[in-house]
């Protein structure tokens, strides 16, 4: 056995069997490239590397030193990157497919305060094509479910035997220019004017394309005149889209304009659970809650995270537990604690709880001030390197026992109260991802 493997055998005695099986046994020591002061190990994916570096690299280095008497620099690198590239390419191909996605259904769409207006509008339209809101215009930020909702209506119509065209402005433009070039505008017009339902995604890309807007306007008039249902989405309210003809803007508002807002925590949780169900991924409540607090608002991230978790757990034959999840999500969280200081934490908590930062640092005894102060202290302890006496000084407390008392209290609450725990997680993630 080479020295590198020997060291891992010793490490095996110091960690749990589970840890060893998950992370250490797959490491390969490079006998050729390692030297007396550099130990090179290979792992098979980037995520394990981070994990091992954080958790075991120091231990491994220490064991080397004990065994060989020299300080060794431990390097853990990736064996091959081919697999990663392949997956990326595959997902890219998927995006260009313009057909309706059958899993974009109403039953798969989780409704909460942030999206219930848009949901109700689209649902209503799907039950009364052409008769209630025509056109229906949905707008909102990236990844909030506009395409999903639009296609949910499209799927309903399609199942009723209607001819549905779903297209993005980009595809519409490609189709248009190709038809101009091939002298086939007749066919182009026939296609878009003979459908029963027209769904056009990401209308903001019409901006400054005069010729296309002209054609688009006539398509709209023809369909609307025939009572055919039209649904649009965009990232902004029609009024706010620059470089758009006035007559188009006004027509976009003829029917109903509905917005989608970023999902609240509960809605995010519901969405994650739904996605797990659809993708047959099993996650504990803790993990679901954790993911919900880490992702910001873009729901699209959820699918990325789940497939990442799933892929890595398959690859490594491990169950998905909270530590594993945290490790996988590290990139997403952009966790750079160096820039986080007590001022910044105090400000973020104060803003979130609607009080002044100076109140957190004051001696105020009112309930919500004490509450905010305790949370701030706890998070400062978690996220900064400050010692208890330093914390005591910063928060104007008598001595470090007051700080340790506070931290004990918060820990108790976290264990008792699920909502409180979520709140703390949410704040922590806000702080770690806001710079
Ligand atoms: P947008 O078009 O607004 O950028 P999408 O409709 O493409 O966003 O949604 C991004 C992803 O998030 C999709 O996989 C979609 O299914 C999912 N999603 C968004 N909102 C919800 C929701 N409320 N319930 C379930 N899935 C959702
Ligand atoms: Mg979209």
Overview of the molecule:
With 435 residues, this protein is an alpha/beta fold. The chain has helices at 3-14, 17-24, 46-55, 57-68, 82-95, 116-127, 146-159, 169-181, 185-193, 210-225, 246-252, 265-279, 285-294, 300-316, 322-328, 330-333, 342-353, 357-360, 367-383, 388-394, 400-416, 418-433; strands spanning 28-29, 38-43, 73-78, 136-140, 164-168, 197-201, 229-234, 256-260. The two termini are 47 Å apart. Mean pLDDT is 86; it is low at 81-98. The structure holds adenosine-5'-diphosphate (ADP) and magnesium ion. Magnesium ion (MG) binds at residues 146-147, 201. Adenosine-5'-diphosphate binds at residues 104, 108-110, 115, 142-148, 271, 274, 299-300, 303.
Q: In angstroms, what is the radius of gyration?
A: 28 Å
**Helix content, binned percent:** 55-70%
Number of helical segments with 4 or more residues: 22
Instruction: Give the termini separation.
Output: 47 Å
Structural class: alpha/beta
Biggest β-sheet: strands ordered side by side in the sheet: 5-6-7-4-8
Major beta sheet, specifics?
5 strands, parallel
Unique ligands: adenosine-5'-diphosphate, magnesium ion
Strand content: 5-15%
Mean pLDDT rating: 86
SSE order and pairing:
Elements: H1 3-14, H2 17-24, E1 28-29, E2 38-43, H3 46-55, H4 57-68, E3 73-78, H5 82-95, H6 116-127, E4 136-140, H7 146-159, E5 164-168, H8 169-181, H9 185-193, E6 197-201, H10 210-225, E7 229-234, H11 246-252, E8 256-260, H12 265-279, H13 285-294, H14 300-316, H15 322-328, H16 330-333, H17 342-353, H18 357-360, H19 367-383, H20 388-394, H21 400-416, H22 418-433
Parallel strand pairs: 2-3, 4-7, 4-8, 5-6, 6-7
Antiparallel strand pairs: 1-2
Helix pairs in contact: 1-4, 6-7, 8-9, 12-13, 12-14, 13-22, 17-19, 19-21, 20-21, 21-22
The structure holds adenosine-5'-diphosphate and magnesium ion.
The site of adenosine-5'-diphosphate has 17 residues, from helix 7, helix 12 and helix 14.
């Amino acid at each position: 056995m080479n020295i590198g493997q020997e060291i891992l055998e010793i490490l095996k005695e110091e960690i749990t069997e589970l840890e060893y099986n998950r992370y250490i046994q797959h490491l390969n020591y490079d006998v050729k490239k390692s030297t007396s002061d550099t130990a090179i190990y290979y792992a098979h994916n980037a995520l394990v590397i981070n994990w091992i570096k954080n958790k075991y690299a120091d231990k491994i280095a220490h064991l080397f030193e004990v065994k060989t008497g020299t300080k060794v620099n431990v390097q853990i690198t990736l064996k091959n990157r081919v697999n990663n590239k392949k997956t990326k390419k595959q997902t890219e191909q998927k995006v260009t497919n313009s057909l309706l996605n059958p899993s974009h259904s109403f039953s798969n769409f989780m409704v909460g305060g942030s999206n219930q207006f848009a949901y109700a509008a689209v649902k209503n339209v799907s039950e009364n094509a052409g008769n209630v809101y025509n056109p229906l215009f949905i707008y909102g930020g990236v990844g909030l479910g506009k395409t999903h909702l639009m296609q949910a209506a499209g799927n309903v119509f399609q199942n009723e035997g209607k001819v549905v065209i779903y297209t993005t402005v980009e595809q519409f433009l490609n189709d248009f220019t190709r038809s101009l070039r091939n002298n086939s505008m007749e066919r182009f017009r026939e296609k878009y004017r003979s459908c029963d339902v027209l769904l056009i995604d990401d209308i903001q890309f019409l901006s400054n394309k005069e010729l296309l807007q002209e054609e688009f306007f006539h398509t709209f008039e023809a369909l609307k005149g025939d009572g055919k249902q039209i649904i649009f989405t965009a990232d902004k309210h029609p009024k706010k889209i620059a470089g758009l003809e006035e007559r188009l803007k006004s027509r976009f508002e003829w029917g109903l304009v509905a917005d989608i807002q970023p999902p609240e925590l509960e809605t995010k949780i519901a969405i994650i659970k739904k996605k797990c169900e659809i993708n047959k991924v099993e996650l504990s409540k803790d993990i679901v809650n954790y993911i919900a607090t880490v992702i910001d608002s873009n729901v699209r991230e959820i699918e990325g995270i789940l497939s990442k978790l799933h892929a890595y757990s398959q690859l490594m034959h491990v169950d998905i537990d909270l530590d594993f999840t945290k490790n996988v999500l590290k990139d997403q969280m952009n966790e750079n604690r160096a820039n986080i200081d007590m001022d910044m934490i105090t400000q973020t908590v104060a803003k979130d709880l609607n009080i002044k930062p100076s109140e957190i640092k004051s001696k105020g005894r009112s309930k919500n001030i004490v509450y905010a102060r305790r949370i701030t202290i706890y998070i400062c302890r978690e996220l900064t390197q400050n010692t208890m006496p330093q914390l005591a000084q910063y928060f104007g407390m008598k001595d470090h026992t007051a700080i340790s008392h506070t931290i004990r209290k918060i820990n108790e609450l976290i264990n008792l109260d699920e909502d409180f725990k979520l709140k703390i997680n949410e704040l922590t993630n806000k702080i770690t991802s806001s710079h």
